[in-house]
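Q: I'm writing up a methods section and want to include an example of the input and output format. Could you take the sequence below and give the corresponding predicted structure tokens, formatted cleanly so I can copy it straight into the document?
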Amino acid sequence: SIRFADVDGKHEYIAGFTREGFEFGHYHQHVMTVFHRCQGQVILDQPADCLQSRDCPLLDEIDTLPGCPPMP
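A: Here is the clean output for your methods example:
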């Protein structure tokens, strides 16, 4: 699974794009972090307001997400 962000009508990966205060770069990095940590079993894209922040507490609890296998 891969997601491409809509940046001004173009779908492309973004590393640090911010629009109207929303940190799209952090959001997409965090979505990919969860996806890879959970071995491709979980796509967590909500709550977006948390995932776009640098200090989203959900990222401290990835192992507890439903469907996320334990670390080997």
